[in-house]
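User: Fold this, then the next.

Assistant: Folding the first:
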Amino acid sequence: MEFDLKDKLLRREKKEQGESASERKNAPEKERASKGESSSEEEAASLDEEAREEDSLRETAEDKFEAELAAAESLKQLSEAEKASLEKNLSRLEQFALRLEQTKIAEYMDYLADPRRLIRMNFLMGLARGFGFAVGLTVLSALVLYILQMVIRLNLPVISKFIADILIYANEYLKLYKFPA
């Protein structure tokens, strides 16, 4: 019942729009006939263009109206199970939209769209990585040297001799190239 009333109202509005468009189209011709003016080719061409535009607008309005009618008809024919399924899918779609908002993908797209901000952030991240690499390598090297000193102090037969030989070669290398020890 509710859809029938909406359909009637939409049809009435469509009729009124169609009638007012045809009156607007014929109004310039009536004025010229009453004034006795002759129309030139330019005026006729502009009127033809206006008429075509109005026709195309009317056709698109008719198409939209028919699509709305078809949608209303299909909603009337849905069973309760189909309506429940439709509502379930709609709620899932709303949940998906909410999750998409929570991921802040719009902010990420804004970030990617601004080249200056992108370059600045990548530069700062590169500096942080380089600093982190340097500090991490220093700490790791100190830890390895500490462990090697402990192994030498334990005086394990094979490993201690091997490490002592490495240290002797390193000291000779430093003396050879005159690095201060």
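Now the next one, as you asked:
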Amino acid sequence: MLIDSLDRMIISLLRKDARLSYRAIAREIGVSTPTVIKRIRKLKDAGIIKGFTVKVQGEPAEGVLFIISGEDARSLEKRIPSVIGVKEVMRTSSGGLIILSEREATDEIKKVCEGKNVRLMSYNIISSERHHNLKARCAYCRSVMDNAISVSAGGRKYYVCCPVCARELQAKVKGMKLMSGE
């Protein structure tokens, strides 16, 4: 099912407050209440809306951070935001894209990148929010982190504060393996 701007507005409002009434949504986006009811029903039937949930303070914020680089990266800038589960798309100064999404969007983002001359890297985001007293430090720059990105390098799992540290740590571990002759 293709979704349009009206569907995206409905989804956006429901993400902010899943308890909004059909009437409140209709008023907010300027359509009739039956239109909203029909749209939400279609989104649920198509599996785009999988349910409504409650976020509790202290639960971990999880997601996936994607970095897309390569000569075709900018050509994806208009397609990526239409993927359900994408929260934010940012451009880099080098012509790439940084995408913050929910885990459920992973397969769809990979499909959008298929056949394009791009390099796609993904990092799982794990919030340290559930451990209020824990002060996690970046494995590369040693700064205290509010949120961490998990990275696999050299057969081990590390936690870093940002994509730059992730890339640098992977390069450092790779260099250490080359020096040791592994």
